[in-house]
Specification:
single chain; Rossmann fold; seven-stranded mixed β-sheet; two-stranded antiparallel ribbon; 5 helices
């Protein structure tokens, strides 16, 4: 498990203020940062709405998505991660980058979504593969009031699952695949209840 010294446990921020900066992350089973090509596409999709956005990065892992959002002008990113080693490294990376507008919550994503909600403009939903966490998280995001009107939800899952069945208040706008990964962008179109 500790074979990951060097580039294997590093990722590069693709765009924005921290473009080309490299950060490290711990060697934790199941932690797989979104590939560069996927992140580049996702942030091209989000380019019109990322500046000034309030973002929620559930299942933070390496922090790749949330850090990319901050680098590109997001006003706030809440990082939610349950592994204390990953949380400690993320906090160190945020200090190194002198990041503003970031907060790190050491919690299980489903437990976090049971808390008092604050609406977010963008949610990154990239749960560990093969754990059946996607549907419960989507339901809680919608039902508990975590999404601002018109919010964008980025979903990353196993390619084999195909396009996710999103809540009726959401519209799936984009879907692509890369290797074993399926990645999708949904938008909340209804005001909901």
């Amino acid at each position: 498990m500790s074979q990951g010294k060097g580039p294997r446990n590093q990722l590069r921020i693709i765009g924005g203020t921290w473009r080309s900066r490299r950060i490290t992350f711990p060697d934790v089973e199941g932690l797989r940062p979104s590939p560069d090509r996927v992140r580049e596409t996702v942030f091209n999709w989000l380019a019109p709405v990322i500046a000034g956005a309030r973002c929620l990065d559930l299942f933070t892992g390496s922090g790749a998505l949330g850090l990319e959002a901050l680098s590109r002008g997001a006003r706030e990113v809440v990082f939610v991660e349950r592994d204390p080693r990953v949380v400690a490294q993320l906090q160190q990376n945020l200090r190194l980058l002198q990041a503003q507008g970031a907060s790190v919550i050491n919690a299980d994503a489903l437990s976090y979504l049971q808390r008092e909600p604050r609406p977010f403009d963008i949610v990154f939903l990239d749960p560990p593969f093969r754990r059946d966490l996607l549907q419960p998280c989507m339901a809680l995001l919608e039902e508990r009031g975590w999404l601002a009107p018109g919010a964008h939800i980025y979903i990353e899952a196993e390619r084999s699952l195909g396009a996710p069945a999103v809540p009726p208040q959401w519209e799936l706008q984009r879907s692509k695949t890369a290797g074993e990964v399926g990645y999708h962008l949904a938008r909340r179109t209804a005001a909901g209840s």
